[in-house]
Design goal:
- This protein has helices spanning 3-11, 24-36, 48-62, 67-86, 99-109, 117-120, 126-148, 151-162, 180-183, 191-213, 215-232, 235-242, 247-254, 260-283; strands spanning 171-173, 176-178.
- Helix content is 68%, strand content 2%.
- The chain has two domains: 3-123, no CATH class; 126-261, no CATH class.
- The protein is mostly helical.
- It starts with a helix and ends with a helix.
- The protein has a two-stranded antiparallel sheet.
- Helix 7 (126-148) packs parallel to helix 10 (191-213).
Length: 284
């Protein structure tokens, strides 16, 4: 079985298509575009078994679990395919891509609007990507509040956590939080305001859960929300998500997920120190 047949079988198990959390057509379209980037004769040059065996095993272990777990696996499988493409050059692939260029091409060539938002956000511009990523984490917390405290308390948390912020327009009903009023703004969203507003909202959720169930439970619930993002997305998106988490949760993890800007800054500082030491050594 070829690389792309393996990937397709993981996204679209033939015996369970009706149970999938997203449309077969959209996924087929995405995979078809990815396949078109590979030179047909080059598949034998890629060690398929080593590259996706782990994904195959993990998918088999999660296919009977809730939709969110299956979505997480599907996204990781896409990222595996993406990694294969951006790490290879012609003649293995027809055209060399950076990660950003590949995702931009996919957004132009594939109807990404038909993908589930947890997968679609990978291909969105920065404003919308952050918005939907931050929403993903809030949905994890929303489920916990609805189950344990009810919709009235959820409304209270949203009112308290969004007052005076750009998220003040969001609403709550019996089915949960509706971010529609914010989503329509799309590319007009101011990123610093978005990050600050969601950080306030996450902190409010944390304080309310801690007040009702204790600090340990609050940390456990938030850790689960972070673990979903951590096991689902890549370095860049994980780093973005850490921006809005309360310090009690984000600080221990931030050490492992410094942003690229932070890493570049630290490298630049280290380089400057080395150059200064060399100058002193030469002067002596």
């Amino acid at each position: 079985m070829s690389l792309w047949e393996n990937l397709t079988s993981l996204f679209l198990p033939r015996e369970n298509k009706a149970d999938l959390p997203f449309g077969a057509t959209a996924i087929d379209e995405l995979l078809a575009y990815l396949k078109s980037l590979i030179n047909p004769y080059a598949e034998s040059m890629i060690n398929v078994e080593d590259m996706i065996q782990k994904q195959i095993q993990e998918y088999e272990e999660t296919k009977n679990l809730p939709t969110s777990d299956r979505q997480a696996r599907a996204i990781r499988i896409y990222l595996t395919a993406e990694d294969i493409i951006i790490k290879n050059k012609p003649p293995v692939i027809k055209e060399a891509f950076t990660k950003a260029a590949l995702r931009q091409n996919i957004a132009k060539k594939v109807k990404i609007a038909n993908l589930p938002i947890t997968l679609r956000l990978i291909f969105l511009e920065e404003q919308e990507q952050k918005l939907y990523l931050f929403e993903t984490g809030i949905k994890q917390l929303e489920s916990y509040i609805l189950k344990n405290l009810g919709v009235t308390r959820l409304k209270h948390i949203i009112e308290l956590g969004t007052k005076g912020t750009m998220l003040e327009k969001i609403t709550v009903d019996d089915s949960g939080i509706d971010f529609g009023a914010i989503e329509v703004e799309g590319g007009k969203i101011n990123i610093p305001d978005l990050v600050a507003s969601f950080k306030t909202l996450y902190s409010t959720f944390y304080e309310e859960i801690a007040h009702s169930f204790g600090q340990n439970n609050a940390q456990e619930i938030f850790q689960k929300a972070f673990e979903f993002v951590k096991k689902t997305y890549d370095y860049d998106l994980i780093s973005q998500f850490l921006e809005v988490l309360p310090n009690q949760i984000s600080e221990p993890e931030r050490v492992n997920y410094l942003s690229r800007t932070d890493l570049e800054k630290k490298f630049s500082e280290l380089k400057t120190e080395v150059e200064q030491l060399k100058k002193k050594s030469t002067a002596n």
